[in-house]
User: Fold this.
Amino acid sequence: MKFIVSTSTLLKQISLLTGVIPSNPVVPILENFLFEIKDGILHITASDLQTTIITTLDVETEEDCNVAVPAKMLVDTLRNLPEQPVTFTIDLDTYSVEISSDNGRYKLSGENATDFPKVPELTRSDMIEIPTDVMSEAISYTLFATSNDEMKPAMNGVYFNITEENANFVASDSHRLIRYRREDLKADFETAIIIHKKALNLLKASLPTDATSLTLEYNSANAIFSFKNIRLICRLIDERFPDYENVIPLNNDNQVVIDRAELLSTLKRIVIYANKSTNQVRFKITGNEMQVSAEDLDFSNEATERLFCDHDGADIEIGFNARFLIEILTNLYSDKVMFQLSEPSSAGLIIPVEKGDNEDILMLVMPIMLHNYV
Assistant:
């Protein structure tokens, strides 16, 4: 059985799938792409049992067939071939795959397609349309704050809560919490699901840049994101997401507006002198001045910088993990940010002063107790 396809076209499609291929698969067949050809359309599938991506493209062929092709060898071969049509010849008895180019021939040892895991089918599912730009922003704002702690599986992903009023995308690792809200995204029924961060990383890398929309279909076990010629199927995290609204402080009398880029640069310098286990920095806000300092008593290292800010409220001194603040400020795009604080033992809120229409961004970070407040 033969089919003809362009090297660049095929490479572009399978490059979207390489991220899902596991490095140490539970089942060896998962090191392969599943090729399924039907009616002149090549369906390519990659899976790690938790997440599956399927993409399609047109090929020149007169036959249908299925075969599993070694993923790494195929990708490496296509990356080193110039743009040209290549012919794939598949022996359905031995599952060998031969690639013929203008000046070469490459033979790969494939496997029986029937050994490849079946793609989950959704029954009794719900469906919602989401603009791809909204989905991309929701992932960008939240993904970095997901937890790596496998003992907290609910926090290993992003919580999608879409209601008749708005849509909330929430991530937390216990030390910080991000809530990205869209007022222009609603549903006739409530959606409350947790999508694992690996699936969202793959989804973000695959999303088109042009204005379009994707379909999110889900049931109690799986979700399917569909757009253009791509389908991403992932297993939902079957856990209850923490009641995040209760940890957001409401009475924040101290408000500090400061230049985001200046504060980010200061933190990157100051953290060099902080204790390496806590990364603690001290904010001392007096009038319209913010003093940012850090010290490492074990090595007698210390650093201090002063920044101008707009401050409304009483003077306050509070400690934070500088690494958390650096990540938060790096993932915001507003020129100025507002810190909403109450007391040294309460969480601080970071809110962009400038934001897009119909969106609300709230980033919460827990404080580190300073020695003079113990």
Notes: The CA atoms of residues 157 and 196 lie 4 Å apart.
